[in-house]
Each structure stands twice: as structure tokens, then as C-alpha cells.
Automatic annotation (TrEMBL):
Residues annotated as domain DJ-1/PfpI: 5-166
Cellular component, GO annotation: cytoplasm
PANTHER family xrefs: PARKINSON DISEASE PROTEIN 7 HOMOLOG, PROTEIN/NUCLEIC ACID DEGLYCASE DJ-1-RELATED
InterPro entries: Class_I_gatase-like, DJ-1, DJ-1/PfpI, Prot/Nucl_acid_deglycase
A Pfam family: DJ-1_PfpI
UniProt name for this protein: DJ-1/PfpI family protein
Protein source organism: Odoribacter splanchnicus
NCBIfam families: not_thiJ
Amino acid sequence: MNVSYLFLAPGFEEMEAIAVVDVLRRGGVDVRTVSVGGGKEVTSAHQVTLRADLSLEQIRPEEAECLIFPGGMPGAQNLSECEKLMTILQHHYDQGRMVAAICAAPALVLSHLKTNRKLRVTCYPGFEKYVPDFEVVADGVAVDGNVITGKGPGFAIQFGVTLLEQLRSSGKAKEVAAGMLL
């Protein structure tokens, strides 16, 4: 378990993808972007095209320490409609490994999780209706065990720093945050 995957589907929110990858890589996390839906080039909600490091078919889920899902529409919906990815997510969660989602993704993607308890999450306002079985809080970033969620684009850097803290240490997170003048 030495790699984290951040999934990109057409219509993803750029800030929630790029800021998180940037923060984690500054902190020494091996995070790789993964295209979902064919080809390595993925176009965001605001027409920014990125070239992912890998396609979904190339990942090795058993090596992942964290699965990360940016929001954006229709990006989060597109992620949630990928059956192979939802199977990988459930298996990863069942093994007690870290799962992170921001914006619409906590509602649209994490709602597919079968859990034995009520998860405490945050999500983009208006998406609460998709997770009636979760406890939705108003926090910018919420941590509930191995599940980390963020509210939206304005919290992308804080979300990334919180992920770094959970994946590495509070010291490393503080060091990266200081270097970014946070």
C-alpha cells in the first residue's frame, strides 16, 4: 500500500483534483490520477483537459492506501455510474483503507458504500438528499475514521492538507501548509 489514486471522470471539478494532487505530492505521497471512462485525456466541468497518469484498467487496487474522488458535475455522477470503480471502492472500504471524497462525490459516490454504521460526512450544499443514511455536517472538511470528506472547491486545499495529515503525519501536513503560506 504505497500509492493513492485520484479518479477523474468527464466533468470533474478542476480545483478539487489539482489542488489535492499538488498538496499530496508536496507532502511526498505517491498519488496518481486515474481516468474513468476511456482514454487518458479527461475534460473537466470548466473545459480544462488533463492527461491522467493511468486509466482505470491500469490501476492495482490492492496497492492503494487511499482512493480519492473529486466532485464537479457531471464528474461525480460519472464516477458513481462506473460499476467497476464502485466495486473497487467497496472492497477498499471493507478492508479499512482510506477513502476521500469532496463536493458532490461524498453524496453521489460514497452513497454506494454498504456500511454497518452511519457515516459522518460533509458535501456540497443541496446534495444532502442523496445520503439520507449519513450524518451530514456543515464542516468544510470532515474526518470519520478512514473516510475523509470535503464540502466543495473552496475547501480543496484544506481537504488536501487533511488527507496529508491522515496519510502521513500532522507534522508533514503543517510543513506543507506553511510552505504554501496557509
